[in-house]
Specification:
single chain; mainly alpha; Glycosyltransferase; 14 helices; 0% strand
């Protein structure tokens, strides 16, 4: 067990987040599937907690790497989503977990900014910045379940305010400066996540919706998702890295956002029949990607020879 925990990479929290989000997406079709995906996500959550207890130094080591430090934000994001699974049974505990997730995410933003963003170095910028700085908008998606729409709205505006300047900064680093190491290449798929997350958060936390905001975020989200899809044939040729977790949540939240936008536009009287094949494809693709990454992680944890170094070192 100790060897398994040592091998368990911190970025698996991205898979945990993807599983929890996919459960909420597919739960509208079958609650049994939602429960199963939630249980698997919960097992990963417990595994990460045990790793932190048994190997407390893994947090410091992981946080020393800007890519891993950003991806660590998927842990509190996952807590926010997993709280929705607990809410029907233990509403008080679920609300406390939701608030804890928001606090942890905010704390990570502050610590990361002080540690990695200041002093600024362009080569320490990765597309994983989107997860760290915009990921807190998961609170906007889930806020209505706790009657906290006002908090969700604040988180949305914060996420939008930091996302807009991050687009040119991260794009300059990725496309102009380049030189991103292979183990960190999969995180480029995170491009598909923030606009979709903002759209999903906006649709959830704002009772009165502005059509221009929905269309603007929806268009940007769709373009970013297309870019992510265009990168997959190249990225799937790489050997397995813990950063494969980036193949999960971005596509799931894209499907959730597109699903929500389709329903909203239909309610506004727009013809959305042409959007249905795209909606179905996004749900199917997100499901396949989450299951594929889960399978690759199972193989990685089950059959790879024990390693003496932490998986997080692979990013360096």
């Amino acid at each position: 067990m100790k060897a398994l925990l040592q091998k368990l990479p911190l970025p698996i929290s991205g898979l945990m987040l993807g599983l929890a989000a996919l459960g909420n997406l597919l739960g509208t079709y079958h609650m049994g599937i939602r429960s199963l995906l939630g249980i698997i996500a919960g097992i990963i959550f417990i595994g990460l907690l045990l790793k932190i207890v048994v190997f407390p130094g893994c947090l410091k080591e992981g946080f020393s790497n800007p890519v891993v430090a950003c991806i660590m934000a998927t842990f509190p994001m996952g807590i926010m989503l997993l709280s929705t699974y607990v809410r029907p049974f233990l509403p008080g505990l679920a609300f406390g977990a939701w608030m804890l997730g928001i606090f942890m995410n905010a704390l990570l933003v502050v610590l990361f900014t002080k540690t990695h963003f200041i002093p600024f170095a362009i080569k320490k910028v990765f597309s994983s910045y989107f997860v760290l700085y915009v990921g807190i908008v998961v609170g906007s998606v889930t806020a209505p379940l706790y009657g906290m729409q006002s908090v969700g709205q604040i988180l949305f505006w914060f996420g939008l305010a930091v996302y807009l300047p991050l687009i040119p900064l991260v794009s300059y680093r990725v496309f102009k400066v380049g030189g991103i190491p292979e183990p960190a290449q999969p995180v480029i798929i995170i491009y598909a996540a923030p606009a979709s997350l903002l759209l999903a958060g906006y649709l959830s936390s704002f009772p009165e919706k502005n059509l221009g905001i929905v269309m603007g975020l929806g268009t940007l989200a769709f373009m970013m998702t297309l870019y992510g899809l265009s990168q997959m044939p190249r990225l799937l040729k790489f050997p397995f890295y813990p950063s494969y977790s980036a193949f999960t949540f971005p596509f799931v939240i894209s499907a959730i956002a597109f699903n929500g936008m389709t329903s909203f536009l239909a309610g506004q009287g727009f013809q959305t029949g042409w959007m249905e094949p795209i909606r179905i494809f996004q749900i199917a693709w997100a499901t396949v990607m989450v299951l594929y990454v889960l399978f690759r992680y199972v193989v990685f944890l089950s059959y790879q020879a024990p390693q003496t170094a932490s998986p997080e070192k692979a990013y360096k």
